[in-house]
Amino acid sequence: MNRRKFMKVAGLAAVVPASSASATSSQTNNILQSADPLDPIDLGTGPSLTNEQLTERLRLLAQKNDRMDLQRIGKSAGRRDPIWEVQIGDGDTSIHIINQIHGDEPFGTEALMSIFRRLVDGNSRLVDSILDNLSLTVIPRANPDGAMYTEDENDDGEEQRLGLRQNIQSWNSNHSHQRPYYHVEEFPGDERGGYDPNRDFNIKPDFVSTVDDTPDMWQTDDDGEPTGVLEMERDGHTLEESGVQATPAVEAITRSFLNADPDYAKTIHSQGLPLDPETGEVTILSVMAPYGPMYAEEAPFGDPEEDATADFVNPFLDQETSDRGIRLNELCAQALEEYAGPWSAFETGTRFGYTTLWGSYLDTLCPQTDAAGMLYELPGQTDSVGDRAYYMKVEATRVALLESFTQLAQDPSLTQTGIEVDDYFDRPLAEGSYEEGRGASDVS
Ligand SMILES: [Zn+2]
Asked: What SUPFAM superfamilies does this protein's entry cite (predicted)?
């Protein structure tokens, strides 16, 4: 069954209220509003800024004063729209953040804009502390193609801006010896198809397509047919499903990351609609830290006795880096719960089950600089649930980011937080899905 069509029929009764795209933002944000599960759902990106609007607002902010530096670090593959990098602060602790590498996951963009405005305009001890102690390097929209993707989803002659996970970019044999498994050949709204950029990274930052991906590194099935799975060898480990770095976004992000030399790396996403196993409600966020083999016993999707280490934990992350990442993730989850108070929707923070993904930003880039990593997952992509609870998701992102900046400015190693590694592993794993029959963690 078509996923989108199913969502329209089934509706969503919990976090996301029934409302149409024409509803006001306050209605859209009112999670207490009763919802009829049979109400139709309008899909789309709603109030999310267009690429043009985002560019205009970033430029205005950067022109305002010298606290913020704005650079165009690349162009998207299909639309040739700018990929922007924002730098704020000149402190010793470097933090690299990417947002919306999946174009149908826009909620962090507005949160980041809100934080930029506060840091550029604000005069307070908190702002001073962040500017003095942190160096923030932020890519607010890593996938401008996906952010603007439109499709006549209802066949009524009207294009809707739905958002898209991938970029818009044809595959060709100059990119790699096989078409990678994460390239989709064609979309209803664009016959060029596109890559999932968060599967396109490679552990080797200077990886060159068709030079470094020799044919023997590509898997074939039992019939000798290509599977699109590239294997990289590194320090005795086989890294399956590595990316080929064919997308301009990944090239730009990798360069930005290495220049920033970060101590921390964060990536903001949306997942399906997984549940908090304790409350049965859709979780408002899930956090995930990449970690090394010292926590193999805690890894939810691997068996240390049977599976290769690199299949489920990152062998290139040491104890200290792993612990910082775990504390950072737990800090953000706890901050949101404390901030929310009686707003119960914020008290359903879960843990996103970690397993290695050798084409992803965190697993490939964190080891380059011993960066502690964080994946921040909000519920629901715009092409499956529309913009419902938009401002709640924006706020959830804003609070967690700002709280982590506040703490890191005072305590760069996060050793004074009182947070223990066990606190993170005690956090319930997101499980199930609001939509019956659909995995919670398959798309994020
Ligand atoms: Zn994502």
From this structure: Zn-dependent exopeptidases (SSF53187)
